[in-house]
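Ticket #4471: structure export looks truncated?
Reporter: QA, pipeline team
Priority: medium

Steps to reproduce: submit the single chain below to the structure queue and open the exported record.
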Amino acid sequence: MRAASENTQQVVDMQDNRMVVRLLHAGDEACFHALFRRYYKPLCTYATRFVTIDRAEELVQDTMMWLWEHRMTLLPEMPLKSLLFTIVKNKSINSASRHTVRNRIFRELARDCEAEFDDPDFYLEGELMRRLNEALDKLPAEFRQTFRMHRLEGMTHREIAEALHVSPQTVNYRIGQTVRLLRDELREYWPLIALVLGSRLS
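Actual output as written to the record:
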């Protein structure tokens, strides 16, 4: 990390989202440390709904480090609080899915948490959504349709296959190709898009 600017205020107003993002873009360590102190414990507490406290701390630390390393992808209109909780939620659910049986109680908990924070699409408004739509418009119509049914409507691969009268393998191929092409087209923003949308990109 670069040293904090001499002009940085000693106390950073975490409520001023645009200012915080601007300072992060500038590589301001003081701002990042203030953000870390403000959200570390709440994020760890939230993550323990899915994983152990030790694992929760690892995931939150990974999230905060990701935020610093990819700070240039942040947009001023993106609320950092909700963004951080969404990323930690996705990481926690993915981690829990790999180490526990996905029983009814876990699935219900995951569904309940979906409504606790802003919908992931909220973060794709404005400039990021414009860039995503522009990239999608360059793809074949059947790729766009399949991807939007999966991402926007939350349909499973099998449900899409039945609706479009194609095989599940065709749906898998279209979504896989769409993700690959979007990753190439939006390489600058892809880490952020992938974390926000989480499993909805698979």
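Status: closed, not a bug. The export was complete when the record was re-opened. Leaving a note from the reviewer for reference: The chain has a mean pLDDT of 80.
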